[in-house]
Amino acid sequence: MSHHQLDARRMFCPMPVIRTQNKIKELHPGDTLEIVCTDPGALSDIPAWCRINGHTVLEMHEHNDEVFLTIEVCEEI
How far apart are the C-alpha atoms of 77 and 60, rounded to whole Å? Predict the structure, then answer.
């Protein structure tokens, strides 16, 4: 297991989700991915994408106009 980061700041919908999807394709089950973005829609868009694709959102919060999400990569369904 390893931890990875994705900087999706200054990107608007749907780019944070697309970048997340592309990055997760490079990772392995059990890896974690921390995403930082400035699109407030990511707080709902990325968790919805995770539910559809079988990944787990471990943490999400906002701080100073930035959105932080941590995802555990699971086997895609």
Answer: 22
Residue range 54-66: average pLDDT?
Answer: 96
End-to-end CA distance of the chain, in Å?
A: 20
Q: Indicate which residue of 13, 37, 50, 74 is catalytic.
A: 13
pLDDT digits (tens, 9 = 90+) for 35-55: 999 999 999 999 999 999 999
Q: Which helix (H) or strand (E) holds 4?
A: strand 3-8
Q: Is 13 a catalytic residue?
A: yes
Cβ partners under 8 Å of residue 1, min gap 6 = 28, 30, 31, 32
